[in-house]
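ugh ok so i messed up the first submission bc i forgot one of the chains. this is the corrected input, ALL of the components this time, i swear. 416 residues overall. if the numbers dont match what u have on ur side tell me asap before i send this to the collaborators (the ones from the other lab, u know who)
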Amino acid sequence: MGYICDFCCEQPSIVYCRSDAACLCLSCDQSVHSANALSKRHLRTPLCGRCNFQPAFVRCAEERVSLCQNCDLMGHSTSTSNLTHRRETVNSYSGCPSSAELSSIWLFFSQSPSAGESTCEQELREMSINENVERNSWCPIENTISQNDNGVAEVNHDRNVNVDSRSTWDGSSNPELGSAPQFLHQPAGTTDTSLTKLSCPQTKYAGVCEDDLYDDFNMDEFDLDLEKYEELFGVTLNHSEEILENGQMDSLFGTKAMSVTDSYCQGAVAAEDSSPGLVNGIQPAFSNAASADSMLSSKTDSILYFTARQDHSSFSFSGHTGESNGGDYQDCGASSMLLMGQPSWCPPSAEGSFPSASRSDAVMRYKEKKKTRKFEKRVRYASRKERADVRKRVKGRFVKAGGAYDYDPLNPTRSC
DNA sequence: TACGACTTCTTCACCACAGTAAGAT
DNA sequence: ACATCTTACTGTGGTGAAGAAGTCG
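and heres the new structure output, hopefully the right one now
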């Protein structure tokens, strides 16, 4: 990573793609991520305006600069005056948004330039994006950002979450939670059912976010900053726990284990009812995509699992590092899903409030989707894939060009 | 409870061929 | 040192076989 675009090596880099582990200028970002459906799903984040190295996760309104976690901590924890700076989370995006669409994601993108803003952001504003690039996958209709009563921007979106939620907070509220700003301005008792996954904690019942259950869930959306988690809960990472694999999920769902989404929502319900302070402390640790950006940039290969002890008195984490890449954990759905039983912060009453019919429905949908889910592998050579995609086959095997075939990918209904 | 039969699920080899790397000329 | 040619190897996706795992009587 560096200040120059990793792809063209000419333009200054503007955004960071975690899946590609690359810093890109906007033009290359467009061309690279319009290549295929997989690349369109890569989440990108603007680069830190200070170090130009790490993906930014927060924007300081006073300094008008986007900052990574480290720079934010450096800049806002050392001075008491800086501590009160109002900060906003920086949205990630996927697909191929136009400059106008980026404006809606990053509000500062449309603000007037100022001397104080970073070079990156000035260039971001000045650069134009090739509007001819196909950008079907980015659906601004499904992703609208609105302001709630508290002035906190919300992202309403349908099934595809392309934009992380945006919120504001000031460093004085709780410096310890600096890496996790979501919902800190959200009154604990408010309920906004228009919010979906990222806003799940605000929903009254877990069923509200049912449609998203298991489906679009991945580490990009479920962000867990382990270090912060340790700080928050004082747990120690255990690297030797067993991995809960996909095949085990069915039985788990049917018994004691719950999906993170479940626990997440139920925890929020509990927090609404009893302990607003608790949910404020918990939610950000799970919902801050930007902190995951920072984390994954340095711990890119970590796939995290944790299991809950049945006694609810403690839980342990598992961190497995392998040769996987960003795309692996990003896209593999359930395999990257964190599984856990009822967390220690979730009182038993929450689970009891979950309608059994909804759960069974959710499990059924999960199983169906699991069947049809394509666990995408990383395609290293797109050209080879293109050829393979059009190559005729006999019983799945490639046949010589011009030879008899029983399956033509270009015309599946026709065979000879 | 143990066992066999059956079903369901998972893993892997197979195929052709364009592209790449390494070595030879 | 450089260019050209040859050879070996790689990696794509759909299918079926084989084995593992689960279910039922």
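quick check: Confidence is low (pLDDT under 50) at residues 110-356, 370-376 of chain A. that seems consistent at least. The first strand of chain A starts at residue 15 and ends at 17.
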